[in-house]
Structures are given as C-alpha cells and as structure tokens.
Automatic annotation (TrEMBL):
<dbReference type="GO" id="GO:0043571">
    <property type="term" value="P:maintenance of CRISPR repeat elements"/>
</dbReference>
<dbReference type="InterPro" id="IPR050646">
    <property type="entry name" value="Cas1"/>
</dbReference>
<dbReference type="GO" id="GO:0016787">
    <property type="term" value="F:hydrolase activity"/>
</dbReference>
<dbReference type="InterPro" id="IPR042206">
    <property type="entry name" value="CRISPR-assoc_Cas1_C"/>
</dbReference>
<dbReference type="GO" id="GO:0051607">
    <property type="term" value="P:defense response to virus"/>
</dbReference>
<protein>
    <recommendedName>
        <fullName>CRISPR-associated endonuclease Cas1</fullName>
        <ecNumber>3.1.-.-</ecNumber>
    </recommendedName>
</protein>
<keyword id="KW-0464">Manganese</keyword>
<keyword id="KW-0460">Magnesium</keyword>
<dbReference type="GO" id="GO:0004520">
    <property type="term" value="F:DNA endonuclease activity"/>
</dbReference>
<comment type="similarity">
    <text>Belongs to the CRISPR-associated endonuclease Cas1 family.</text>
</comment>
<feature type="binding site">
    <location>
        <position position="216"/>
    </location>
    <ligand>
        <name>Mn(2+)</name>
    </ligand>
</feature>
<keyword id="KW-0378">Hydrolase</keyword>
<dbReference type="InterPro" id="IPR002729">
    <property type="entry name" value="CRISPR-assoc_Cas1"/>
</dbReference>
<keyword id="KW-0238">DNA-binding</keyword>
<keyword id="KW-0540">Nuclease</keyword>
<feature type="binding site">
    <location>
        <position position="149"/>
    </location>
    <ligand>
        <name>Mn(2+)</name>
    </ligand>
</feature>
<dbReference type="InterPro" id="IPR019851">
    <property type="entry name" value="CRISPR-assoc_Cas1_ECOLI"/>
</dbReference>
Length: 293
C-alpha cells in the first residue's frame, strides 16, 4: 500500500557516496508522491518557495529553528537511512539525533574494537593528543598525557588572549557555581558548548558511539568531548575570545548570544562539522560502506 506514495521501493545509496549534511530552517518538510519537499518561508540563505530534497543523496538532515514536519518524513527517511537531527541555529546545539541503524555499523564496530583493547585504546588517545599538540607526545599513561596537554593549553590561552587584547588571569570554572565565573571564562564555556554540539552532530552522522571516549571517560558524551577537544585551538578559543571582545567593544551585546552567533557563522563558513566527520573516519580507518579503508 505504501509503495509509490512514499517511494519505499527505491534502493538506498551507500553513505560513502552521499554528500553529508543538509541544513534546513524555517519551513515545513513533507512528503508528496514519494518525494521529500521543503516549503521554505524564506530566510537569509534560502528564498521562500518549494524545494525537492535529494534525501537519498544526503546522510543527515539538520533541522533548525522553525521547521515542522509530517509523520511521513520520518518513515521515508528511516527507510532510506537518512538521519534527522533537531539542532539550534547553525548547529550550535543538538537536541536529538537517532542512530542510523544496524546497516551502518562499520565505524562503531571499529571504535569498539579500539576502545576495548588497552593498547589500542592508548594508541588512539596518543593519536588524538598528537593532533592537539601538533606532534607525537611521549608514550605514557593517560594521566601523563593530560598533564602535557594541560600545560600547553595554559600557554595557548595566554597567547590568544594577547592576540585579542583581552586580560586573562587563567581558566576558572566551578561546575557547582557556574554563575560565579567571570565573563571571559563564561565566553569560553559558551564557545565550548557550541563546539560540543557540532561534535555530537558529527558523532551522530558517523553512527559512532558517544559513550566510548578515548580521553574522556565518565560522560555519556565522552567520544563527542574527545572530538570537540581536537578543535579547541582552531575553533573554540578564537570564537570565545572573539565574541568576548565584541562585547567589550559594544556593551549593548549579550555575551552568550554573541558567542553563539559567532560560533554558528564560523562553523558554517569553515565547515567545522564535515571536518569533524573526516577526523573520525581518519582515527578509525573505516568508511561507511562496511569495511576498513
């Protein structure tokens, strides 16, 4: 009965041959005669009108503020392995994103294998630290590597603060009393939240396991936090200090809003989420056709 109306008989395209992410905001997503269509109300990036969505050529649809959708959309996308994620503006928040399913498990299986063996788990952590440090760190336990990275980050904070002309007295953040954090540290927190959201989207898009981190351990988002930290120097801190400086120059601006806007614009312009997805694939040496590269 559903054949034709929802196009469920059409063969699926491997995710390795798809184009990754498609961003939609402010409009209605529905299915007409087996075709996914988006009626855009009009915004800065997409003019008002009706658009056919090539759902079989996309891995993940990111649904931003103002998007409504019909039940048929879920059924069509589920059948063709196209993910749906509800996100904030420009992907600076992730609200929900279900896994893609059992036929896209190659990278998750590779992740689990690397995580389960102590030697390969440490090797993967070292590879992540090498990315963050720009060179291979001396082999050691995780605590020693964290100490090396922590010392480097303290210098990075000072360097970037000088570049942006911002007074910096050190990273200060009390999780139990976040409201007592000073403004520049709060700006770092806001930027980190946006980076984490992007990493969560990348993890969802690759169907990897967020709980199995190689550096972070206790959080249900440990692997997403691992990936977010890989982009701290090039994304999180420049956004944090840039947003804070804007607020210093214009006291009418609201810090969280300004950092979030800057994060979203930078994320889209620099292709942060696709970069994270590629980094995950590189770490695990696996593609999504079901085999190792």
């Amino acid at each position: 009965m559903l054949r034709g109306r929802l196009g469920l008989e059409t063969a699926r395209i491997p995710h390795a041959d798809r184009h990754g992410l498609l961003w939609l905001s402010r409009g209605q997503l529905s299915v007409t005669e087996g075709t996914l269509q988006f009626c855009a109300s009009g915004n800065g990036e997409l003019a008002a009108g009706m658009y056919d969505i090539p759902y079989q050529g996309v891995s993940l649809l990111l649904l931003g503020p103002g998007v409504s959708l019909t039940h048929d959309v879920f059924r069509l996308c589920a059948r063709h392995g196209t993910g749906l994620a509800a996100v904030g503006d420009d992907g600076t928040r992730l609200y929900t994103a279900p896994p893609r399913g059992p036929d896209h498990s190659a990278m998750a299986r590779r992740q689990a294998i690397l995580w389960a063996d102590p030697d390969s788990r440490l090797s993967t952590a070292i590879a992540m630290y090498a990315i963050r440090l720009g060179e291979a760190p001396p082999r050691g336990d995780i605590a020693a590597l964290r100490g090396i990275e922590g010392a480097r980050m303290r210098e990075m904070y000072k360097l970037l603060a000088r570049q942006y002309g911002i007074p910096w007295e050190g990273r200060r953040y009390d999780r139990n009393s976040p409201e007592e954090t000073n403004a520049v540290n709060m700006s770092v927190n806001h930027a980190a939240v946006a980076t984490r959201a992007a990493a969560e989207i990348a993890v969802a898009a690759t169907a990897t396991i967020p709980q199995l981190g190689f550096i972070h351990e206790d959080s249900s988002l440990s692997f997403a936090l691992d990936i977010a930290d890989l982009f701290r120097d090039e994304f999180t801190l420049p956004v944090a200090f840039g947003g804070y400086k804007r607020c210093l120059e214009d006291e009418s601006l609201v810090l969280e809003r300004e950092v979030r806007k800057l994060a979203g614009a930078t994320m889209r312009r620099n292709g942060l989420i696709p970069s994270m997805i590629e980094r995950i694939k590189e770490l695990f040496g696996a593609d999504d056709r079901g085999g190792d590269t």
